[in-house]
Amino acid sequence: MCGIVGYIGKEQAAPFLLDGMSKLEYRGYDSAGIAVMEGAKIRLEKCVGRLEALRAKIAGDMPVGTIGIGHTRWATHGRPCDRNSHPHADSSGKFVVVHNGIIENYLVLKEQLIEKGHVFLSETDTEVVAHLMADLWDGDFESTVKKVLKEIKGSYSLVFMTEYEPKKIICTKKDNPLVIGLGEGENFIASDIPAIISRTRRTFIMSDGEIATVSADGVWVQDINGTPISKKVFVVNWNAEAAEKGGFEHFMLKEIYEQPKAIRDTMTGRVDKETETIAFPELNWTPEMMASINKIFIVACGTAYHAGIVGKYYLEQLARVPVEVDIASEFRYRSPLIDGNTLCIVISQSGETSDTLAALREAKKLGARTLGVTNVVGSAVARESDQVVYTYAGPEIAVASTKAYTTQILAMLMLAIYVGRLRGTLGEARAKELVHGLGLVPEQVHELLENVDQIKVFARQYASCEDAFFLGRSLDYAVALEGALKLKEISYIHAEAYAAGELKHGTLALIVEGVPVIVLATQSDVYDKTVSNLQEVKAREAVVIAIGFVGDEVLKQHADSVIYIPKTDKYIAPLMAVLPLQLLAYYAALTRGCDVDKPRNLAKSVTVE
Ligand code: AGP
Question: Is residue 22's pLDDT more than 90?
Answer without folding.
Answer: yes
